[in-house]
């Protein structure tokens, strides 16, 4: 078992958001911190992907509407498989 380094932070959340996160974490069987950690990881992966597309477009030119549609269809399929896997 590998040990993960952890940094403690104090954060502020809107009351309603904190309540929703608390419930989601409970539903998922994880701690509040673990739920936020996973959400942050997903957001960072999304950001990295968007940056990758921007870099690619800077070199190869903008994606065509057809390429964007194909990419969105692929993303929809991938996200659906993640949702189905989590159920």
Structure overview:
The chain is built from 3 helices and no strands. With about 90 residues, it is an all-alpha fold. It has one domain (about 20-85). The longest helix is centred in the middle third of the chain and has 29 residues, at about 30-60. The two termini are about 25 Å apart. The mean pLDDT is about 90.
Notable features of this structure?
3 helices; mainly alpha; 87 residues
Proportion of residues in β-strands: under 5%
| Main β-sheet description | none
Number of domains: 1
Helix percentage: over 70%
* Mass-distribution shape: elongated
Distance between the termini: 27 Å
The number of helices is 3
Low-confidence runs of at least 5 consecutive residues: none
Rg over C-alpha atoms, rounded to the nearest angstrom = 17 Å
According to DSSP, the number of beta strands is 0
Structural class: mainly alpha
Give the rounded overall mean pLDDT. Answer: 91
Q: What's the SSE pattern?
A: HHH
Spell out the blueprint of helices and strands.
Elements: H1 15-28, H2 32-60, H3 65-86
Question: How would you summarize this macromolecular structure in one to three sentences?
Answer:
This protein has 87 residues and is an all-alpha fold.
